From TrEMBL:
InterPro entries for this protein: Aminoacid_DH-like_N_sf (IPR046346), Malic_N_dom (IPR012301), Malic_N_dom_sf (IPR037062), Malic_NAD-bd (IPR012302), Malic_OxRdtase (IPR001891), NAD(P)-bd_dom_sf (IPR036291)
Binding site residues for (S)-malate: 145, 402, 446
Name assigned to this protein: Putative malate oxidoreductase [NAD]
Stated family: Belongs to the malic enzymes family.
GO molecular function: malic enzyme activity; metal ion binding; NAD binding; oxidoreductase activity, acting on the CH-OH group of donors, NAD or NADP as acceptor
One of the protein's GO biological processes: malate metabolic process
Stretch forming the signal peptide: none
Record-annotated Malic enzyme NAD-binding domain positions: 259-515
Length: 542
């Protein structure tokens, strides 16, 4: 619906700005409120692209695009759609990380919901105040583990805003039906607490009892107000991430992107990599650096895949080695979570080793797959990578930590240290790597390949749960779209311009699975495909 007069002009979801025609201006009471010239959407895209290009650095570009989004969403998405590869790193990883760190400094206008602990007891009212009535997808964070940048308090809001932009750009979710949320439960980031500009509740993070009660009140309010919404958890610190997911996943439509989305994209990328390497996953030794919720989530899915390929649970666990800040996870270590314990190696297997750091593990194990979800920049050293490259023809090496400053290795180095044999995918975007006069694109193994498609799937299918099998189908469908399957010299994951189309494919397969799993109303495959097509929103003036 288009509002009249000034209100219509400033409603970012419906405004056309200078593209309102003479007739519309007359009809909507806009005469005199706009400069005389009438532009088309394409004119506006060309103009905003020019303005975007004039911004000095990436954060300035981010601020420009965020302001455009607050002003005119149709134009924002049309501009993005024409420049996905260039603009993804600006609205999303890595620049969004800096935008979170500087959130209070660069704040212009509110967006979404700021759910603050001092407002506890009134969260139903907070939810009722939401800017958009009908919501398909909520992305919520508590700002405690923003990428690999740690606790950003309320600044974490940049992440739900960025992720939801991609739900729309890639997954076709109507921007009028999205809701970014930050749970403001304090921050332990002293720099933020001491910053006079800080816009959050100036308080240390609350204790666990209060925390879980508050999360519960929030979830209850969401379920009362928006019973069908997809609630996506994002960038929660590991000690809270899995308990929250386990508490709600059987009761409502919800998933944790860092645990499940990351696992699905990684499995998808490994599918192509294993094929090129000529060795199925079940025959590989896998080493993971990092035992946080992301790392353990990925390994859970890898183990399930190994079992699907014929191994027993125990045989799969034998092939998986996890190293954290204290060394290899072994069964004599104390303080491991249940999830970590499932991947602890028997201590006797390593009792004659000199040490259990990453270098020791790579030295002792015939490692074929090396993954990093550790935030430990540069941890895949030349020595480690060269040793691994001596053991296998096509080493599979994924430095997946974000943002760029936290990557375990640079793809250029991996290429050099393995004479171009490494099969690489990174969490953050990197420039193509040159070899033999040819530039090769580096696959970005980031959950952005999964979550927009998952949102589209559950919205189109009216699903009520996100099952493990739906995530596996997403991984498989993505894996089948790997350009490396057709040509081993190609990247492990599809190019950005193909991603919206592939998201449709993934969404359709996932929605079919939701019906099979009995968590969505009965529909034929054709009906599913039609529902997905109908659900997709496109940026045009209406
Ligand atoms: N590519 C993606 O799509 C994607 C998705 C999710 C998370 N991530 C990234 O993964 C990283 C980890 O996320 P998390 O939530 O699991 O974090 P986390 O902080 O809970 O876990 C980090 C783990 O790494 C270990 N670690 C830290 N420093 C280390 C070091 N120097 N040597 C060895 N181990 C070390 C820690 O002991 C811990 O087990 C973040 O950078 C995040 O941005 C990427
Ligand atoms: O946000 C990203 O780029 C991926 C992932 O969710 C992360 O936390 O690093
Ligand atoms: Mg995340």
């Amino acid at each position: 619906m288009v509002h009249k007069g000034q209100n219509g002009l400033f409603d970012a979801l419906t405004t056309k700005g200078t593209a309102f025609t003479r007739e519309e201006r007359a009809e909507l009471g806009l005469l005199g409120l706009l400069p005389y010239a009438v532009k088309t959407l394409d004119d506006q895209v060309a103009h905003t692209y020019q303005e975007f290009s004039r911004r000095r650095d990436d954060l300035d570009k981010h601020i420009y695009l965020r302001a455009l989004q607050d002003r005119n969403e149709t134009l924002f998405y049309r501009l993005l759609a024409g420049h996905v590869e260039e603009m993804l790193p600006i609205v999303y990883t890595p620049t969004v990380g800096e935008a979170c760190e500087r959130f209070s400094d660069i704040y212009r206008r509110p967006r979404g919901l700021f759910v603050a602990y001092p407002d506890r007891g009134r969260l139903r009212e907070v939810l009722r105040n939401r800017p958009n009535r009908d919501v398909d997808v909520i992305v919520v964070t508590d700002g405690q583990r923003i990428l690999g940048l740690g606790d950003q308090g309320i600044g974490g809001m940049g992440i739900p805003i960025g992720k939801l932009s991609l739900y729309t750009l890639i997954g076709g979710i109507d921007p009028a039906r999205t809701l970014p949320v930050v749970l403001d439960v304090g921050t332990d980031n002293v720099e933020r607490l001491e910053d006079p500009n800080y816009l959050g509740w100036r308080h240390r993070r609350i204790g666990d009892d209060e925390y879980y009660a508050f999360v519960d009140e929030f979830v209850t309010a969401v379920r009362e107000e928006l019973p069908e919404v997809l609630l996506q958890w994002e960038d929660f610190a590991t000690p809270h991430a899995l308990p929250i997911l386990e508490r709600y996943r059987e009761e409502m439509l919800t998933f944790n992107d860092d645990i499940q989305g990351t696992a699905a994209v990684t499995l998808g990328a490994l599918q192509g990599a294993a094929r090129v390497a000529g060795r199925p996953l079940a025959e590989q030794q896998v080493v993971m650096l990092g035992a946080g919720s992301a790392g353990i989530g990925v390994l859970e899915m890898i183990r399930q895949e190994m079992v699907a390929q014929g191994l027993s649970d125990a045989e799969a666990a034998e092939r998986i080695w996890v190293v954290d800040i204290d060394g290899l996870l072994t069964d004599d270590r104390t303080g491991l979570s249940d999830g970590q314990r499932r991947f602890a190696q028997p201590a006797e297997r390593v009792e004659d080793w000199d040490g259990t750091g990453l270098a020791d593990v790579v030295h002792r194990v015939e490692v074929g797959v090396l993954l990093g979800l550790s935030t430990a920049a540069g941890a895949f050293t030349e020595e480690i990578v060269r040793e691994m490259a001596g053991k296998t023809d096509r080493p599979i090496i994924f430095p997946l930590s974000n943002p760029t400053s936290r990557a375990e290795a640079h793809p250029r180095e991996l290429d050099e240290w393995t004479d171009g044999r490494a099969l690489v995918a990174t969490g953050s975007p990197f420039a193509p790597v040159e070899r033999g006069g040819k530039a090769r694109r580096i696959a970005q193994c980031n959950n952005v390949y999964i979550f927009p498609a998952m949102g589209l799937a559950v919205t189109a299918a009216r699903a009520t749960r996100v099952t493990d099998e739906m995530m596996r189908v997403a991984a498989r469908t993505l894996g089948e779209a790997s350009p490396a399957l057709a040509d081993p010299a190609e990247p492990l994951l599809p190019a950005w311009e193909d991603v919206p189309e592939i998201a449709t494919r993934i969404a359709t397969a996932v929605a079919v699975q939701a019906v099979k799993d009995g968590v969505a109303p009965e529909m034929s495959e054709d009906e599913v495909a039609e529902a997905v097509r109908r659900t997709r929103w496109t940026p045009e003036y209406r």
